[in-house]
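Fold sample X.
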Amino acid sequence: MRAFVPPGVVLDGELVVWERGRTNFALLQRRVTAGRQLLREAREHPAYYVTFDVLVDAGGEPVLDAPLVERRARLMRLLAGAPPQLAVTPQSADLSEVSEWLTTWTAAGVEGVVIKRLDSRYEPGRRGWAKFRARATTEAIIGGVTGSIRNPDTALLGRFDRRGRLRYTGRTHPLATPQREELAGLLSPPRPTERRAVIHPWPDPLPAAWSGQFERPEPLRYVQVEPTVVAEIQVDTAYEHRRWRHRVRYARPRLDLSVYDVPLILGEGEDPFSGYARTA
C-alpha cells in the first residue's frame, strides 16, 4: 500500500481472502481473534484489497463531488501498475457482460453486483446505489425453529451428509405471518425413542459458532422439531464451512418431497449454485 498509494489518498474498498479459488470470509474474520498468531495467519492466507472508489486523490484533493465516471478514471490512473494484491473492482455498462459475471463468478463466491449512476457523487453515510444479489432456489430440512412450534419466528435448516447425519446449514429470515401459520400445522416435536428419550442431531442451545450471527455472538436458544418437513429456500453465494453465512429466504414447504430428496450437504469448495435454479 505504501509503495503504490500516495500519502493522503482515501480509498473505498474491501478486503478479500481467497482459498481454493473462492473468497473465504471466515479466514478474514479469524484475524480479529488471532492474537499472537496474526502474522502467521496473514502469511498463510494473505488478504487482497479490492478498491471500489477514490474519495481523496493524490495531493489531498477531495473528489467526493466529482461524478463516478471521473472518480473511476482517477482511480485507474492512481493504481496503474499496482500488484494483484491491490486490485480495482471491474466495472461495466454492458448488461451482457454483467449477466456473464452473475453467471460465472458466483462459483468464486461473488455475491452479486452493485449498480451506480455514472454521474453520481460520493455521499458518505448515504446509499446512493443498489445491490443485486445472485440467488439460487434449493431445498433444506427444517430441524428447529426460534419462537415456538405453534408460532415459529425463524426456521433452522439442515441437510444430510454422506454418512446420513443431519448437519446444521443455516437459518431463515423472520417468517411472514402466513408462513408461520402454515408451518405451525406441519411441525411437530421430536418423537421419543422406545426408551422415551428424545434424540435430536443438534445441541440445544445452538453453539454461537454455528449460527454465525456476528451481531449476537452467543448460543442460540431454539425449539427442536422432528426433521420431516422440507423447505424451499433461496440462498446466495456466501456458503462457507458447509453453512450459508447469510440468512436465507424461506419460500414454502415442499410437501411433495421426502427429506431424502433434498441434496446432500455440499463439500468445501463446491459451487453452492451448482445444479440449482438461479433467481434474482
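Fold sample Y, listed below.
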Amino acid sequence: MVEPGLATAASLAAVRAAIRPGITTLELDALAEAAIIAAGGESNFKLVPGYRHTVCASVNADVVHGIPNNRPLEPGDIVSIDSGAILGGWNGDSAMTIVLEDFTRPDLVAERRLLADITEGSLWAGIAALASARHLNEVGAAIEDYIVEHGRGHRYGILEDYVGHGIGKSMHEEPPVYNYRVRPRGPEVKPGLVVAIEPMVVRGSIDTIIQDDDWTVTTADGEPAAHWEHSVAVHPGGIWVLTAVDGGAAGLAPFGVTPVPIP
C-alpha cells in the first residue's frame, strides 16, 4: 500500500503548493487529480457512487465531504482538503487543513491556525499511540487527551458521528477508529492492520448538519472546523505512515517514535 499512499501524498502536496486567496477549490481538485495520475494511480473518491471529484474541499464551517466549487478562496479561510488514490487495487486516504493568510485579521488567522495545529498534533498523538498500542481504541484515547491538554481555554469539540476506518482493497473498511475515548478496547493491534486515523475537531458544538447537496457536513453553529488524516500500516517491525513521504518521521519525532519501513 506504499504506492497509493505516496500518490495520495503527492496530490495533497500539489494542493499545498498552489493554495492561495483567489484560487478555487475546483482548480485545486484538478491539480490533485493530475498529481495522482502522474504517480500512476487514479482517484478513489471518484469511484464512490454519486461523487465526481478527486478531493473533498471543506471551507470554514464545513467539516468534511465538501464538494469543490467555483468560489474563490478568501484571506482567512480555513480549508480542509481530503484526498485519496487507488493504485494496484490498493487505497490511500489522507487529509490536511490550511489557513490562508489575512494580514487585516491576524487574531482570526491565529485562532484558526491554533485549531488546525492542535488537530494535526492530535493525529500524530494517535499515530504514536498506535505504535505501542495493544488494542486499537488506545488511539482515540491519545487523540482526546492531546486535544484536552493543548486546547485548554478553547471550546474545542471532537466530532463523534464521523470517525476513522480500516483501509485496504476498499477505501473504507472495518474496523472503526474512534477519535475519542470509548469503553470497549477494540480489536487487537497486530501486523497486517492498516487504518486511516482522522480526527475532526470543531470550535464550539459538535452538532452538525448535512447540506442540501447530500455530502457537505457543516457545523450547526457555524464555527470553523479542522480535519487531518493519515493512512498507517502496522507490520512486524513497527508502523509506517503510508501517506507521508518520510513515513511519518517528522510528525512522530516529538513523541519519541521512529517509523520503520515496511520490509
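Sample Y note: Residues 176 and 194 are 11 Å apart (CA to CA).
Also: The mean pLDDT is 97.
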